[in-house]
Design goal:
By secondary structure, the protein is mostly helical. It is built from 13 helices and 8 strands.
Length: 336
């Protein structure tokens, strides 16, 4: 009887040592795949992946045999989930299989940028990795919009109907879904700005606020002066002065070569604020939060003019005489 107990003890010890050795062996199998993104297809398993990596000479037959034995003892670890995963620089076989079991797919980022047009945004979307391209035109973007009926006038086109931000998505997400998220974000930000607007603004609807904010966006990328730029345009609207802003002129040109001319300023297209009074018919770019708030809460000033200093900031003036002096200094003077 004592011999049987001893034999049983020895067998148990050997099994325990063998199990420990197997686990240690499997835990230490390194696996360095050539790409940082890996797609697990439908119907895959830990065993089938191991065979695939063996065929690619990433693993050996001994590695896969060891994994097979290990999975018999740990059947819950044999499954993996379909998806696209981001790999770390160094991982073991078990770590990689654990990632594939978790279903934590890779996150990809798409950034829409303030001041860009909807066509530029669409180009970014069509070039996004692993995004299902089920949306292709600005007209489709406009058709998707759920504009609140209580806001009155509806957008004339798709311009500015996406909120500039970084959007994260998993592989095989749809472009439509991403655009819908960007539209919802835009409507939320616009609603907040409209609620916070000054009571005496010469703006009748949220869409007019969006139009003004887009002009501010294009005129200044320097946040501290956005409210001053806004005040210039608001003061001009109150005085029924033309806005005379170059970005609106450029937006309406079909083939702008980078240099605005007198002919461009005389072009009668509807976005030319040198020829037409009031706001243009629609926005001219994507609009960020700072520009929306500047349009809603412009600084209280007596300013009616500004000119670029050439360093990203502007010189503001209250009178035409002051403005002409600033133009001579910062624009004409730089050309002498």
């Amino acid at each position: 009887m004592l011999k049987l107990i001893r034999l049983g003890f020895i067998v148990a010890l050997l099994l325990g040592v063998s199990y420990y050795a197997l686990v240690r062996y499997i835990q230490q199998i390194p696996l360095q795949l050539p790409d940082d993104i890996y797609t697990v297809t439908a119907g895959s398993s830990a065993a089938s992946l191991c065979r695939q990596w063996q065929q690619q000479q990433q693993l050996t037959s001994t590695n896969c045999l060891g994994l097979k034995l290990y999975l018999r003892l740990h059947p819950a670890q044999a499954g993996v989930k379909q998806g696209v995963y981001r790999l770390s620089g160094e991982q073991t076989l078990l770590q990689l299989l654990a990632l594939f079991r978790s279903g934590k797919e890779a996150q990809f980022a798409l950034t829409l940028i303030e001041g860009e047009t909807v066509q530029q945004s669409l180009k970014r979307i069509t070039q996004a990795r692993y995004l299902t391209q089920d949306l292709h035109t600005a007209e489709e973007v406009q058709a998707m919009l759920q504009w609140p009926p209580e806001w009155g006038e509806t957008p004339v086109n798709a311009e500015a109907l996406l909120y500039p931000d970084t959007y994260y998505y998993t592989a095989n997400s749809s472009a439509r879904e991403l655009v819908q998220r960007a539209q919802h974000a835009l409507l939320n930000e616009l609603a907040q700005a409209w609620e916070q607007r000054q009571g005496d603004l010469p703006l009748q609807t949220p869409y007019q606020l969006l139009i003004l904010a887009s002009i501010i966006e294009k005129e200044s990328s320097y946040p501290p002066e956005k409210t001053m730029v806004a005040s210039v345009f608001v003061n001009r609207l109150r005085k029924n002065m033309r806005l005379q802003t170059d970005p609106t002129v450029i937006y309406g040109l079909e083939n702008f070569n980078g240099n605005i001319t007198r002919t461009d300023l005389n072009n009668p297209h509807p976005y030319n604020t040198y020829r037409h009074f009031g706001l243009p018919p629609g926005p001219i770019s994507l609009v960020g939060k700072a520009s929306l708030l500047a349009a809603a809460q412009p600084a209280e000033t007596d300013l009616y003019y500004f000119v670029s200093k050439g360093d990203g900031t502007h010189q503001f003036s209250s009178t035409l005489e002051q403005h002409n002096s600033a133009v001579k200094k910062y624009i004409l003077g730089s050309k002498l």
